[in-house]
Amino acid sequence: MTRHLISSADLSREETIAILETAVSMHDLQRRDVKKVPTLRGRTVINLFFEDSTRTRSSFEIAGKWMSADTINLSGKGSSTSKGESLRDTARTIDAMSVDALVIRHQASGACHQVAQWVRASVINAGDGMHEHPTQALLDAYTLRTRLGELDGRHIVLVGDLTHSRVFRSNVITLKTLGARVTVVAPPTLMPSGIGTWSATDGFATGWDLDAVIDSDDPVDAVMMLRVQRERMSGGYFPTAREYTVGYGLTRERLERLVARNPEVLVMHPGPMNRGLEIAADAADAPQSVVLDQVSAGVAVRMAVLYHLLAGDESTRDDVERSVSA
Ligand code: NCD
Predict the structure, then answer these.
(1) Is any ligand 1 atom within 6 A of the Cβ of residue 207?
(2) Is the CB of 55 within 6 Å of ligand 1?
(3) Which of 102, 213, 259, 320 could join 39 via S-S bond, C-beta 3.0 to 4.6 A?
(4) CATH architecture of 8-133+297-325
(5) What pLDDT score does 317 carry?
(6) ∠ at Cα 40 (38, 43), nearest 5°?
(7) Looking at domain 135-293, what is its CATH homologous superfamily?
(8) Would you kindly state where each structural domain of the chain is located, as residue ranges?
């Protein structure tokens, strides 16, 4: 297993599946009254978040705590970066305290890759700018596999602000690693430049017309709606919110058409949702929605990632397997 998790491409198919399978045991643990296992006793995990987060930060913190690691949260605002310290100095300062893992969210694409060159600790990317968010892709894959079984040949459609989305980039890699077919849909202004070269790969398609994808002969197994990331937009990517919803929102009417073609279709969103913009409340709260399953899977998957990265030796491995199966 790799020492760092910076990109979803760091994980082979076997490694991806190994993490998802460990997450199944972790999810069992999550359902118990007493959730602690001693696996990471004596290890220290620092969550260093330079961008806002609800789900990712709290689930990494819970994951570390349930595995008995000492976890500490640092935010950009409360740390010395607000006094002008460089990312390199901040990272090296924390590393000098002999921590075992640094979970980093940063607004700059490539920040985690940079930090990994400077520190001895394992670096886990919790979202770097518009680049990647590998643990999100793992928890999405976990949620899909729980409902659909193996993903080979499954048709997953990602819709929305692809240009600014690290969730999209990591998901395409992980879904393809697991053999799914992926269609991505966005207005032309939010379609990443250069995506034409990706389209050359098997099982990957792009489109601007969401209705054509919904009505095509290829039923959709899951539709993943991505947030319109206004905080990363500098200009006008679409005329009005209303027009975006008309063209690309998962409305009640579109969900009905998806369900008519495949009653088992799943509705996903990584959160935070802009209700009424990219997803209607009717769709977010529909029986097909697995949005809260995704959140729940987030803790189990992050426990599994910490386990594979930090508790690599066999003795600790036996320890966790015993605690989980006890
Ligand atoms: C995503 C993120 O921060 O990249 N959210 C998340 O981690 N659950 C997606 C988003 O912000 O839209």
Answers:
(1) no
(2) yes
(3) 320
(4) 3-Layer(aba) Sandwich (3.40)
(5) 53
(6) 135
(7) Aspartate/ornithine carbamoyltransferase (3.40.50.1370)
(8) 8-133+297-325, 135-293
Cα–Cα dist 300/313, whole Å: 20
This prediction's pTM: 0.94
With a cut of 70, which residues of the chain have pLDDT below it?
82, 199-200, 313-326
Looking at residue 80, what is its pLDDT? 77
- Would you state the structure tokens that stand for residue 276, as one six-digit string? 């009424």
Helical H segments across 31-165, by residue range: 55-66, 87-95, 111-118, 134-148
**Same fold across 8-133+297-325 and 135-293:** yes
Q: Which of 136, 164, 226 has most ligand 1 atoms within 8 Å of CB, for mutation?
A: 136
Residue 95 structure tokens: 């590393």
Ligand 1 lined by 136 (C-beta under 6 Å): yes
Q: How far is the CA of 272 from the centre of ligand 1 (A)?
A: 7
Largest CA distance in the chain: 58
